[in-house]
Design goal:
The strands form nine sheets. Strands 1-2-3-4 form a four-stranded antiparallel beta sheet, with no helix packed on it. The chain has a four-stranded antiparallel beta sheet with strand order 5-6-7-8, with no helix packed on it. The chain has a four-stranded antiparallel beta sheet with strand order 9-10-11-12, with no helix packed on it. It has one helix and 33 strands. The chain is an all-beta fold and 404 residues long.
Length: 404
């Protein structure tokens, strides 16, 4: 239940995630933040068209499609007139366009859309700008870091499109496009790095991926791969607008045909959501974001909804393990939630006589068991034992579930 004052802003055009929180932006100066189950809304003063946000210690920096960067704690706008600033306004425009922000290696990284040096860093003392290629690559929209040395920069498909790679150590750049056979399409909408450091790329022509993420590996000959279920290439020739990697390393593809959840270990689609089988108000998915608790927010052309997966961020140990509801009434309850799991888990559920009814090697912090055995048959009333082992088998927990 949500009280009337706990809704996000109207006219949401973008959802964004940072530091475990979900942000909803409108086309103006208003934003809402969702954390620990509650929305909080705020209006920024003299700062419009919010594009992005990043948390730095106890401060937030906001990017804007028109006004530069806002230092929220000090209520200071950082633009081309800020001391030693490297920021530049868009040609033939009065707009200072910041398309994305990130905080890496104790520096604020800024995408200054339309600048001849559109990648900029600032550590509150020193500014540095980087040439990431010719004029064709001066329109970056999204910044993703591989947690090692390489930025993956998604370029505006309405300009020249494609992807730019930038190595922080070598200060080198490399471009992926159809012309050098590194992309299937230049119209890139989204990219995401999974837990294996694979890079998943969504475009107007489907999905491709790379099994490496460094500039050197890509440049030295790595070719893109296409998801294949053994019979055919899947997700091809459909518009993929966004990609979300959940805490089990599953890939959620937001498309113009609804949502597809893909298990890349098994190379198969494990679930789909559309208007016919779920409450999503439109099959045209604009964006997908998730909280640390496993709640997935889905922005469609007709509004925002969320779906609680209970697949939270994995814990370092089993001290917070919970199994609920317990007891469970099979006539009313549809599932049991196991939360507080570690990165990788071996889960076995047996009946009192020892017959195995459910078994899974599970990666992720929370699991929903639908009370069905491995043959997809609903279990009967009784006592069930839950055995949970960490991946190396060094820790075993036994819990009992009463099904009535």
């Amino acid at each position: 239940f949500y009280s009337p004052d706990n809704f996000p802003i109207d006219n949401i055009n973008k959802i964004y995630t940072d530091d475990g929180s979900i942000y909803a932006f409108s086309y103006g100066n208003s934003f809402s933040m969702y954390k620990e189950g509650r929305w909080e809304s705020q209006n920024l003063v003299n700062f419009d068209s919010i594009s992005s946000v990043v948390s730095v210690e106890n401060n937030n920096y906001f990017g804007s499609y028109s006004d530069g960067v806002l230092d929220n704690s000090n209520q200071t706008i950082i633009d081309e007139n800020y001391p030693n600033s490297k920021l530049k306004r868009l040609n033939n425009s009065n707009k200072l366009v910041i398309s994305d922000l990130d905080y890496i290696n104790k520096k604020l990284w800024i995408l200054n859309y339309g600048s001849d040096t559109p990648l900029i860093s600032w550590d509150e003392l020193n500014w540095e700008s980087y040439n990431i290629g010719s004029v064709f690559y001066n329109y970056p929209q999204e910044l993703t870091f591989n947690n090692k040395e390489t930025f993956w920069i998604l370029n505006d498909k309405k300009k020249f499109g494609g992807i730019t790679l930038f190595d922080l150590n070598a200060k080198a750049n490399y471009h992926l496009s159809v012309s050098n056979n590194k992309l299937k399409s230049n119209n890139i909408n989204s990219l995401a790095l999974d837990k294996n450091n694979y890079v998943w790329i969504g475009s107007d022509q489907g999905v491709i991926y790379y099994n490496c993420s460094s500039l050197d590996d890509i440049k030295e000959g790595s070719s893109y791969l296409t998801p294949n279920d053994g019979n055919k290439n899947i997700f091809q020739n459909i518009i993929v607008n966004d990609i979300l990697i959940d805490n089990s390393n599953n890939k959620w593809f937001g498309t113009d045909q609804g949502i597809f959840i893909f298990d890349s270990n098994q190379n198969k689609i494990i679930n789909t959501f559309n208007k016919n089988n779920s409450p999503i108000p439109s099959d045209i998915i604009i964006s997908l974001k998730t909280t640390d608790a496993g709640e997935v927010f889905i922005l469609t052309e007709n509004g925002l909804v969320s779906y609680q997966t209970y697949n939270e961020v994995p814990k370092p140990n089993y001290l917070d393990l919970k199994i609920y509801p317990n007891p469970v009434r099979i006539s009313n309850d549809q599932s049991i939630i196991i939360s507080g799991l570690v990165e990788k888990n071996i889960i076995h559920i047996t009946n009192q006589s020892g017959r195995l009814v459910f078994s899974e090697l599970y990666e992720g912090g929370g699991l929903v068991w639908d009370l069905k055995d491995n043959d997809k048959i609903k279990v009967s009333s009784g006592i069930y034992l839950v055995f949970i082992l960490s991946e190396d088998g060094s820790r075993k927990l036994i819990e009992k579930i009463l099904v009535i």
